[in-house]
Amino acid sequence: MAVVDRNGIPLAIGIASGERHETKLVKRTLKQRFLRALPQRLIGDKAYDSNPLDADLIMMGVEMIAPHKCNCKTKTQDGRPLRRYRHRWRIERFFAWLQRFRRLVTRWEWRAATFLGFLKLACAVIMLRRL
Description:
The protein is α+β, with helices and mostly antiparallel strands. The chain is built from 5 helices and 4 strands. Helices cover 37% and strands 10% of the residues.
């Protein structure tokens, strides 16, 4: 999981096992951020439409922008913040950049710490290219 700013520069990165849902990983990833300050807003897809996640992020001072699922009973957004959702392609572009690193496409390392190290190295390369 990664948190990326509007320019495609990674702010936080984390790894976890495949069976965990991403909404469970958001707080843990934000705690592993590279900068001290938390982002003001997070943009996510429909999978991030979760009332407990929204409540946790509001307590941290972060606004979650995600379209509602079709089975959502309580609507928490009125549509105005969703205009920012159209910029989600910048976040997807970061993941496309990560796919250029062959070692990250398929995980060959036995240890998670080694893979995380290569992931952070790839983020550093991406940051240097973007600056």
